[in-house]
Amino acid sequence: MLESFQINNFRLFQHLEVKKLSRVNLIVGKNNSGKSTFLEAVELYASNGSATILLDILESRQETWFSEVQAHSQNFISNPVRHLFFGHKLPSIGGDGISLGEVSSNKKLRIGAAVYQNKNDDEGTIRKIRISDVEFDEDISNVEVFLVAEEGERTRRLFRLADRIIRDIRRSSRIIYERQESEFKYTWQIVSTENMPNRKLAALWDLTSLTDLESEVISALGLIDDRVTGVAFVEDVSRSPASDNRVPLVKIKGIDEPLPLKSMGDGMTRLFHIIVALVNARNGLLLIDEFENGLHWSVQPKVWDIVFQLSEKLNVQVFATTHSRDCIKGFYQAWNNYPTLGAFFRFDAKNESIKATEYTSEILSDAIDMDVEVR
Fold first, then answer.
1. 282-321 residue pLDDT tens
2. Which alpha helices (H) appear in the chain, and where do they start and end?
3. I want to staple 367 with a disulfide (CB 3.0 to 4.6 A). Which of 65, 108, 238, 372 is the partner?
4. Which element (helix H / strand E) includes 284?
5. Contact 143, 137 (CB under 8 A)
């Protein structure tokens, strides 16, 4: 479990420290204060700087767009990866790049740019050798600029920065990945504002059904409709085989025909995504962007209570964001039941910097009672 988290030079965050994390962490703040960015940073760290996750994050914000009317320069500075760095600029070669990790750790994950050159070793085999700026001035033949991930003495090349179109970047990363597979720091699941892709949801349910955790999911769905007795995914043969064609159905007591999950409303769908993701994040992390989406205010305290219960039972650390005052109130009520398991932070943007302010449960209680704005 992460005890703290520090971010340098990642998107909005030139420098951010959250000094005390807990089991269930709720983050609030105004638009563009970095709430979703914080979740991205935690995911990138959990993946150990995976090239695939890094590119997925860029694609989720449509930052990999490329137009034929753009200049066809191959300058690495124009690589879409620049959007992940503070100021939308790639760092200089060997300069300070992204840094992610616990505040007190000396082995943070660092992502930056480095130069490599093909050189012959003593046996005549051509190898890529990282070269410094001084060496770079001596001979510029066979030189390539790479995005690299570093931790301690270990360095991994992620992909070439000369490529600008996403298909070429992914091809470059796959070639390197085949040679040097990275290991994740944590297992994790993420529920975005638009929930999980149906294909992923179906795969996670396959891992959950017929286990002891299936009853936890069904019980949670009972918060919205206590007639739910079962869930199953079936193939929709009306769609192309290549499509995402498995549909979640729920069995309702007193109704013979199973009903599509989505026909039960946005709240039921959102709750199913959150709980399925949670039970599949055992011994890892769960990231939820805009927790309250689709959930009526009256059910949110009970959902938070289940999140607190299961996160402790399954050893999951939860990071969630919200814009909703009702969601904050629901979180606070559950936090009171598990006083050692919660943490609440507000992100504030001032003078192009972001600061994290921690609230104790007492301060949050006073703010709620006095109707002070904390979102």
1. 999 999 999 999 999 999 999 999 999 999 999 999 999 9
2. 35-46, 51-60, 133-138, 166-179, 198-208, 214-221, 266-279, 300-313, 325-337, 361-369
3. 372
4. none
5. no
Which among 241, 217, 243 is positioned nearest to 230, based on CA atoms? 217
Interaxial angle between packed helices 300-313 and 214-221, expressed in degrees from 0 to 180 and rounded to the nearest 10: 170
Amino acid symbol at 316 = V
- Judged on CB neighbours under 10 Å (0-12, 13-18, 19+), 344 is buried
The DSSP string of 216-227 is HHHHHHTTT-TT
Residue 248, helix vs strand vs coil? strand
Q: Give the 3-state secondary structure of 313-372.
A: HCCCEEEEECCCHHHHHHHHHHHHHCCCCEEEEEEEEECCEEEEEEECHHHHHHHHHCCC
CB-based contact 204:277 (threshold 8 Å):
yes
Q: What is the pLDDT of residues 29-80, one digit of tens each?
A: 998 889 999 999 999 999 999 988 998 999 898 887 766 555 544 555 568 8
The encoded tokens of residue 72 equal 């066809």
Tell me which amino acid residue 165 is.
I
List C-alpha distances in Å: 34 to 15, 79, 289. Answer: 12, 23, 12
What 3-state DSSP class applies to 126?
A: strand
d(CA 339, CA 332): 10
